[in-house]
Amino acid sequence: MKTPDHPVVHVIEHYVARLVCALPPALLRIIGRDVAAPEGVKPAPEVGALLTIMAMTGERALGTGEDPEARRASTRRGAATAAPRKPGPVRAQQVTVAGAAGDLRARLYIPPVDTDGRLLVFYHGGGWVTGDLDTHDSVCRLLAMQAATRVVSVEYRLAPEHPFPAPADDAIAAFAHVVDHAPKFGARPDRISVAGDSAGGNLAAVVSQQTAGGPRPAAALLIYPACDFRGGTASRTLFAEGFLLEKRDMDWCQARYLPAGADIEDPWISPIFGEIDERHPPTVVVTAGFDPLRDEGETYAAHLRAAGVPTVLRRYPGLVHGFANVTALSRTSHDAMVDCASALLAAQELGARPPARVEVPVSS
């Protein structure tokens, strides 16, 4: 039986999980001893312990059942449990940005350091169905602090109420709005980058490709992005079950995101099929060793490199999909995200370009 969804319960769960993850590695390995090792190695000790706890409680990354609202509630619950208890020195304020069909809620994060005009437009993960500003609050705070950049987190429209192309159209419209109003957000137009995790990484990749008619992002950070809806990679088979993100959840999200008859080889859906031009921003691609999306993310990094794009690929071998959200519990995950932020900062400096006016494309 699942425990009640209540703030006090989230706090208790957080500290229990934190106490478990702080145990000596030898004890953590005992707790996670039943976690599978499809390639002959185990996840990081605290990650294996977290996977064991989730298996015991029946929790999954994107919830269970057919009701999108129930899954959204489950995602919020998991994020609240994993979030740090103290927000740290980064300030946050509510803002709005223009979406493709009206204003969108957004949140501006301001670190207590000189950002030199840098800003990151962030798209949250959650399979295009779940996730919001709160589920990725800790991710944005960490990136803002460690990459010395302001962050605008965008709450784009979600499927199934708003299936493809609504989230992708919102992602591009939001980027255009932030560039056109850069001073309002404390940024320089030529220093605005994009980032996202999972489904949000997919959207950040789409924005990087599909803004050829105007300013491009200065850089892109794609954290375990969904890049190829064909789904035929070895990692999708190896890690189909038992590693946080499961095949049944990906299938459920895809069925709600894509309308009947959608072309999965459309680059607005699968960026792996996109044309990469000479102005594509420098890109950091992040993958996890135990992630179904690992191989397609790494193939996409190779695709970018072959086209001449400055590309950094970071694979974190002991981690699973979703590690960006558990940095308060997992030291390995925290260190990985600090490393990602460092790589992003370097890419931002490499990719800064003179400002120009944005033209907003419309998906086909």
UniProtKB/TrEMBL annotation:
GO molecular function terms attached to this record: hydrolase activity
Region (Disordered): 61-92
Biased composition (Low complexity): 76-85
Assigned keywords, A-Z: Hydrolase
Any Pfam family hit: Abhydrolase_3
Alpha/beta hydrolase fold-3 domain sequence ranges: 120-324
Active site: 198
Keyword field contains ATP-binding: no
The family this protein is said to belong to: Belongs to the 'GDXG' lipolytic enzyme family.
Official protein name in the record: Alpha/beta hydrolase
Species of the source: Svornostia abyssi
